[in-house]
Amino acid sequence: MSKFKKKTSTSQDIPTAALPDIIFMLLFFFMVTTVLRETDFLVTQQLPKADQLTKIEKKSLVSYIYIGKPKNTALFGSESKIQTNDVFVEVKDIIKFINTEKDKLSEVERDQITMAMKVDQETEMGIVSDVQQELREANARKVLYSSRKVVLPK
Amino acid sequence: MGRGRDRGATEVNAGSMADIAFLLLIFFLVTTTIANDKGIAMLLPPKPDPNVPPPEVTKNDKNIFKILANSQDRLLVEDEPWEDDPALLKDEIKKFILNFGNPSPEGLDVYNSLPPSMKQFINVAGKRPDSSDDPTEAVVSFKAQRGTSYELYIQILDAINAAYNEVYGERIGLTAEEFLALDKKDEVQNDLYKRARQLIPRAISIAEPDKGGSN
Fold it and tell me: Interface pTM (ipTM) of the complex?
């Protein structure tokens, strides 16, 4: 017992000098890992609601195509447009876009590329199906229609 | 100046450093948007080979559940106008898939693999001769026009998928949500998934929209 009694004279304070370091570490972690926003949306993005949603299994295999009415109608008109990365593209340029996206992936993963279609709910099907024809042409057949979760009334 | 020696080691007051860092940390936590990458997954058909003529439709007409959507977002389901909520199509499609009008040997295998609750459902409502022969044959066909809104397209796709997921889920005693949440990397869950999908293909045919009502 006397062995323990000796130690009572030590101070009880927890050293907090390392606290800022720990917090800074967390801070840097969040700063590095967060992507504030990958692209600036040039088109309206009011996604449709759906119930039967599946999650993306591997995020690195996903590329995004945005379709909707341009936000800046004075400059781009009010017709629905396709956006990839930060620019508007025409339907015929989509194959090129998919091929550059596929080049970023490794050889074995190339056929598993998933195109996430972020389409505004006001869009008409014509442009969407034009894009889908191009996806079939480019052999990127996995499609995910991005939607918001809705709770269906029972 | 003479007192300098008494003061001992000089230290920068670092007590508020943690507060500043916390402030920044909270800023980043709040501004970060965690992307909600969820949606309806679909596999597009492979591109048609120009050297091979398009396959003839050999399916019996009663094995195809036809949904048409026009540019005014009105629906035609099995040649009848559909005025209800598109979400209610789910029950119709489910009845259609689980119809055993004239089952083949494979179809009978499917029937025998179903749990008693589903067998009962089929015996009450699912033996109409004018609907699909059996689940292995049933195809849901959906055709939209160029002027159809994407919102309706997704609603219908959602309803079709919901019908299939409910059938799959019920087959292994789960709800549609639980079926969707199955993790295919886990062996046990993957087995369940395969058992649910076995012999009932998710046969959804999306036709290319025709020109009607295009802009």
Answer: 0.74
